[in-house]
Amino acid sequence: MRNSKESVSKIIGNLQSVDGLKELLRSQLNYDLINLPISRQDWPEGAAAPLAEDPLLLASQEDFHIIYGRLNGDLKITPERNVVNRLLREHPYALFIFSDYKQRNWHFVNVKLAAERDEGKNRDTKRRRLFRRITVGPDERLRTATDQLSKLDLELISKEKLFISPLDIQQAHDNAFDVEKVTDKFFNDYKKVIKEFKTDLIQQTDDLAWANEYALQFLNRLMFLYFIQRKRWLGDSPKFMEDFWKGYQDAGQAQNTFFDKWLRVLFFEALTKPGIHGGHTQFLNFNEIREALALAPFLNGGLFQENGLDRKTGFTLSDRRFEQIFTFLERYNFTIAEDSPLDQEVAVDPEMIGKVYESLVNVSTELDTRGDAGIFYTPRTEIDLMCRLALVDNLANHLGEDKKNLFYELVFALVPDEKEEADQKITAAQLWGPIEQHLQSLTVLDPACGSGSFLVGMLHILDDLHVRACRQLGKVEDPYERKKRIIGQNLYGVDVMEWACRVAELRLWLALIIDADFTREDLHVRTEPLLPNFTFNIRPGDSLVQEVGGINLGHRRFTLEIPQALKARITRLKTEKLKFYRNEAARQFLTADQAKQEELRLFRDILEQRRIDLQNRAAQLRQMMAGMQIRLDGTMEAAPKREEWARELEEVTASLEDLKQAQAALRDKTELPFVWDIAFVEIFEGEGHGFDLVIGNPPYVRQENISDPTLPREMVTTENKKLYKAKLARSVYQAFPRFFKYKAQAGTPGRKLDAKSDLYIYFYLHGLSLLNRQGSFCFITSNSWLDVGYGKDLQEFLLRHAHIKFIMDNRAGRSFAAADVNTSIALFPAPNDRTDWGLRQKARFVMFQVPFEEIMSPVIFEEIEEAHERVMKQEYRIFPTPQKELWEEGAEAPEVEPEDETSQKKGVKLQSGPLIKIAHYVGDKWGGKYLRAPEILYVILAKGKDKLIRLRDITDVRPGCYTGINDFFYINKTQARELGIEDEVLRPIIRTPREVLYPSLDSGNIQNMVFYCPYSKGELKKRGLKGALEYINWGENQVTRKRQKTSAGIPWPKVETVRRRNPGWWAIPKLNITPSRNFLLYVIGERFLAPWINNSITSDRCFHRIFYRKENEVDSKKLAFSINSTLTFLFISLFGRGNLGQGAQKYETADAKKLFIINPDSIQLNENLLAKFGRRTVLPISEELNQPDRKEIDSVIFEILGLTHGEREDVYEAVINLVGARLEKATSLKPNDRIKRVKAAEKTMGIWSEIPEEIFEED
Questions:
Q1: Distance CA 566, CA 609 (A)
Q2: Which of 561, 615, 1158, 1233 maximizes the CB count within 10 A of its CB?
C-alpha cells in the first residue's frame, strides 16, 4: 500500500528500536522483511570494531538490500564509512541504516559512486564513494526526512513499470538523497519569505534599500541561531528558538512585542555581552529562558552587534511576520557541519547562507529584478578542486617541483585509507616539518570573497592537513584553537559589498564553533569572547580601484629593501593584529580604528623611506651617467651602461613622482577607503611581499554594465560608468607598467587594455599583481577570454610573463546555474613582467569529459602534469603546447605596401625579422583549438596545408547593416506603400534569419526594406520625395523604447548612434547597406547555412556580408559551395564564441575573416547540385548530415582534402558532438530549469535555433 507522510513522520518521530524500523520498511515503504544477521568473522578490525553486534539484512527487493548496523557508541561518520565499505563488496545495491547504541539517533545512508578508475599501470583502481545521509532523532526536525524517505516507497518507485531492477531502486534512492533538491526547496521557500518580509518593511518605511539589507541581516541572524542551538549552547536545548517563541506566546504579554522585548535582548545583550542585566521583567516567570539568556555564549560583535540598520525607526516587526519566518525555519533540519567532497548530509548547512546571499545579492534594491552584481555561487566541488590544486602548486613552488606528485597524493587524499598511505610517503620523505612550517605561514586571499566560500573551503583542507601533520609529528592541538589559528593567520578576503563580508565572517564563525567543545558553564565563565574579530582578515572595499584625492593608491611594487626598524614595526603590527583577532587582554589595539591608524602611519613612513631611497638612487644614476671611462688608447668615452642607466633613471623618476603624489593624497587623511598596501601592509612589506595564494570567482559583469559598485543603481550614469572604467584601466596599467608601457607622469599607456574587457579581466590582472614571487593563482571565470577579442591582452600577458599551468574546462556540465555563462578554471604562478620568461614554458589545456566529482584524484593530475603531447583518456583530454608557439599562432606581422604591380597581384607581404620583434599579438581561439577541438581538426590542417585559405584572403567580410534605430529604418513593403515612401529611398534587406527560407535567396521574396536616404531635407524637396520627407518628420517626433542598449524616452534624432550623421540623423552610411551576394550567419544554433543570391542584396547584422573580390556569379556560387560544406560548420563550431550560455554561438566579423575554407578555385562547380541544395530547408545537424545533396557537397570538399572514409565520418561525428555538447551544456543543470530553447523549427524553416532576439538588437 502507498505510504502516507503522516504515518512515516509518526514512525520516525518515535524510532527507538529495530521493531520501529521494520514497521517503517514493511508497512510504509513496502519492502520484504528478511532479518538475517551478516557475519563479521572475516572483517578487518576497522570495520568490525565500531559495531555493537553483527549487522542485519533487514529487508530487500530482488537484489536491493536494506542493512542495519548498531554502533557501540554515538553516531560517527568514519566508523559508518568503514562498515559500509566492507558491506558494499557483497551488497552493491543497498540502503544502510545506522543507530547509536541507545537507538535514539539514526542515520539513513545512501552511497553513490562518485568515480571509478580504469585498471592499469599507475591508475587508481579504488572506487570513490559519495556518502549521503539523512539524520533522524529526537532533536531533529523531521519534515525533510519524512519527505525524502517517503520517496523510497517501492510502490512509488515501481509505478507504471512492469518490472523494476535493483539498479532502478538504487537510482530512486540516489534521487531521494539528492542534497541539491533539498537546498533548492529551502532557497525557494526562503525567497518567498524574504520577499514578503521586505514588502512589509517597505510599506512601513518607504525605504527600499534599507528594507533589503535589514531583511537579509535579520534572516541571517535567525539562521545563525538555528545553527548554534545544535550545540545546545542556548538553554541546553537543540530547540531553543521553539521554546523561546512558545515562552513569549504563553506569557500573555502585549501583542507585537516579541521582537522589541524578547529578540532584541537575545541579540544585543545575551550574545554580545557576558550576561544580561536583571531588569528584564518579561522573563520573571520563565526561569529556564532567563537562565538560557544569562548563560548564552559571549560571541563578540559582528553579526549581533547593534548597527545602523537596527537603529532605524518607524517600523514594527509584528508577531505575525515573525511567526511566518519561524514556521519556515522550523520546517528544515539544520546541520552545523559543511559537507566534505565525499560526505553530505541531506539538511541545510552553513553553505546555504552563502548560496542565499550570492543568489539574492543580485536582487539589489528591486524586489523582482536581477541586479548587476554578476555574483554567482561556485559549486563546492569546483571550490574544493581549485583549493587543492592551488595548494599543491604552492607547496611545489616552495618545497620543490620534484616532490609535486607526493603533494598531489597528500592534498587529494579524501578518505582514511588514502590519507594513511599518503602520510606514510610524506613521513618517508621527511617532509612533514617543512610542510607544517609552510602551512603555518601560508597567506590565502580571495579578492572578491562574497560569502566566503573559497575561504571556508581552504579552511577545511588546511585543517585536515594540520591534523595529519600534528599526528605524524607527535603534536597535540585543540581543534577549536587550531581552526582559530588558521583563520587568523592564513585566510584573507575582500569584497566591495560590506554585507558580503559579514556573511563571510558568519560562515567562518560557524566553521570554527563546530569544533568548539564547550559546555554552557564553560562559556558562562569564559571572559574571552568565543568568536574572534575578523576585522583585519575580511575587509570591505573595492579590490580594483583605490583612489584618494584622485590619486590611485593601488598595490605598487618596489624592489628596494626597507630598513630594519620599519621591518620590526611591520612584525609588531602583524603580532598586534593577531592579538586583536584573538581578543587577547594584553593587546595594544582596543579598537579596530586604533589598528587602522597604525596601518596608515606605518604606510606613510614606508612611503617616506621609499622616497628617500628613490631620490638617492636617482642622484647615483645621474652621477654615473655623467662619468667617463678611459679607453686602452688613453682617450675618453661615455660609460657603456649609459643607456641602461638612462632607462632606469626614467623609471625611478616616474616612480618618485608617483610616490610624491601618493604622499600628498595621504597627508591630511584620517579615514581612507580600502587600499591594499595599507590594509595588508604586513603582507606586502613583510617577508613574503605578497600573498601565497590568490583564489576565487570574481563577479561576471559584461563590459557595458561595469559601473562603480559603491554607487546605488539609481545613481549610475553613462558618465560615471565611463569614469570608473577609466580608473579600472589606469589601475591595471599601474600594476604592470612595463607590459602596458605606462608613463606615470603623463598618465598614458603605450598599449591600452581593450575597452570591451569584462570585469573579470581586471580581476585577473589585479589578482596576479597581489602574489608574492612564489605565489599561486587560481580563478574560475567565464571562458570568453579564451576566444574573444578582448582576451588578447590577458593572453599575451600570460604567454610572455607567466606560466599557463592549467586552463581547464568541463564538457560534462556548466558550473554556474544562475548565469548564462560557460566557465573555465585557470592556474598560474606569479608573473614577472620584466622578462619574457613565459615563452619558455609549456601551457596545458585540459578538457574533462566527466563531472569534476569524478576527477578528484591525484593520479589524474599526475598524468596531466607528465603529459608532453596530446593525450586522450576516458576522463579527460590534455593538449600541452609551448607558449612560444601559442604566441606565434596569435601574432600578426605588420603589412607593407606591395613594391610593384607583380607583387600587388600576389597580395601584401610581411616585414622580415624575428617574429617576437616585428609582430604584434592579436589573439587566438584557445578554447576552440585546444579545449573543444577534436583530433580530426589536426588531420584536416595537415592535409589541407596548401588547399585551405582564410576567408579574408579572397573576400572582404563586413558585418550586416547597423541602423541605430531599427524602429525607424526597418519597414516592410506594405507599410512603405501605405505611407507613400518612394522606392528611391528603400533597399531590400534580410532583416532576420526567419526570412531565409532556403540557402539560395530569391529577392522577390524579400518583404523587409531599409530606409536609405542620403539626401538632406532640401534635396528631398527638390527631388519631389514627399513621402520620405514626411516619414523623416514623423520620426523626429518619436522617442525610443527601452531596449537592450538604449534607455526609453530619447527623441530619435538625439540617439547617440545617429545624431552625428550627415546630412541628418536619418542618413545611414553607404557602407552600412552595400549589397553582397554571399552571407554568413552571425549567431548559430543547431543549424548552419551560408545563403547566397544571384542579385546582390544587403542584410541586417544577423548575417555577415561577404564581398568576393571576383565579382561574378559563377565564382560567387563556388564560394557558396565551399562555405556551405560541413567542414565550415566544423571550423565555426570550434572557433566561434561559445560564451552565450544558451546553446547559441556567436561568430563575429573578426572570426569570419579568419575562417578556413577550401579555396573556391579548386572546386569544379556542380551547379545542379548547388541549386538542388539551395531550394530546400537546412535541417538540424544530426538530420542534415543524412541528406543526399549534403553528402555530395561534402564529398567534393573531402576529396580535395584527400580524407579517407573514416576521416570523413570523424568530421561528421565531431560536428554532431560539438553542437550537441554546446546545446546540452546549456541545459545540463536541471531538466526542469533549461534555459529557453524555444522549438521554432516550423517558424524558422530550419534556420532559427531558438536564439533570443536581443542578441541581434542594436538600438
A1: 9
A2: 1158
| pLDDT 10s digits, 435-490 | 999 999 999 999 999 889 999 999 999 999 999 999 999 999 999 899 989 998 99
Q: If you write DSSP's letter for every residue of 611-658 in order, what string do you get?
A: HHHHHHHHHHHHHHHH-EEE-TTS-EEE-TTHHHHHHHHHHHHHHHHH
Q: What is the chain's length?
A: 1259
Specify whether the CB–CB gap between 205 and 315 falls below 8 A: yes
- 466, 486 contact by CB (below 8 A): yes
Q: Cell for 75?
A: 553516531
Dump pLDDT digits (tens) for 766-819. Answer: 999 999 999 999 999 989 899 878 899 999 999 999 999 999 999 876 555 544
Give the helix/strand (H/E) hosting 891. strand 891-892
Are 766 and 725 found together in one domain?
yes
> Under DSSP, is residue 51 helix (H, G, I), strand (E, B) or coil?
strand
Does position 1053 have pLDDT exceeding 90, yes or no? Answer: yes
Residue type, 681: V
Q: Would you call 1081 helix, strand, or coil by DSSP?
A: strand
Angle at 117 between CA 113 and CA 118, to 5 degrees: 135
- CA–CA gap between residue 1223 and residue 1221 (Å, rounded): 5
Same domain, 490 and 572: no
Q: In terms of Cα–Cα distance, which of 1001, 1218, 1247 is closest to 1129?
A: 1218
Domain containing residue 930: 882-945
Beta pairing, strands 636-638 & 1156-1158: unpaired
Instruction: Please report which helix (H) or strand (E) contains residue 742, including its range.
Output: strand 742-743
Label residues 113-128 b or e (16+ Cβ within 10 Å = b). Answer: ebbebeeeeeebeeeb
Question: What 3-state class would DSSP assign to 113?
Answer: strand
List, in sequence order, the alpha helices (H) in 829-929. Answer: 858-866, 883-889, 901-906, 915-918, 926
Domain boundary among 137, 159, 177: 177
Give dist(CA 641, CA 624) in Å, integer.
9
**Residue where the block lists cell 557483497:** 90
Let me know whether 1119 and 1218 are in one domain.
yes
Residues 717 and 659 in one domain: no
User: How many domains, in total, are found in the chain?
Assistant: 6
DSSP state of 27: I
- The answer to whether residue 1007 is domain-embedded is no
Answer yes or no: do 1214 and 1166 share one domain: yes
Contact 760, 702 (CB under 8 A): no
**Separation CA 355–CA 338 (nearest Å):** 13
- Residue 458 near residue 696 (C-beta atoms within 8 A): no
Q: Does the residue 354 lie in any domain? A: no
1023 is a domain residue: no
Residue 527 lies in a domain: no
Helix axes 1188-1201 and 1113-1123, enclosed angle (nearest 10): 90
| DSSP helix/strand/coil, 491 | strand
CATH of the domain at 835: 3.40.50
From the list 178, 187, 509, the residue with the least C-alpha distance to 344 is 178
- If asked whether residues 467 and 565 sit together in one domain, one would say no
Clarify whether residues 223 and 290 are in a common domain.
yes
Say which DSSP state 412 is in: T
**Predicted confidence (pLDDT) per residue in 77-114, tens digit:** 889 999 999 999 899 999 999 999 999 999 999 998 76
Domain boundary residue, one of 827, 852, 880: 880
Question: How many Å apart are CA 1029 and CA 1019, to the nearest integer?
Answer: 10
Backbone CA torsion sign across 572, 575, 577, 582: negative
pLDDT at 896: 43
List the strands of the sheet with 823-829, edge to edge: 538-540, 491-495, 444-446, 691-696, 771-782, 823-829, 806-810, 842-848, 876-882, 871-872
Closest C-alpha among 332, 267, 328, 333 to residue 302: 267
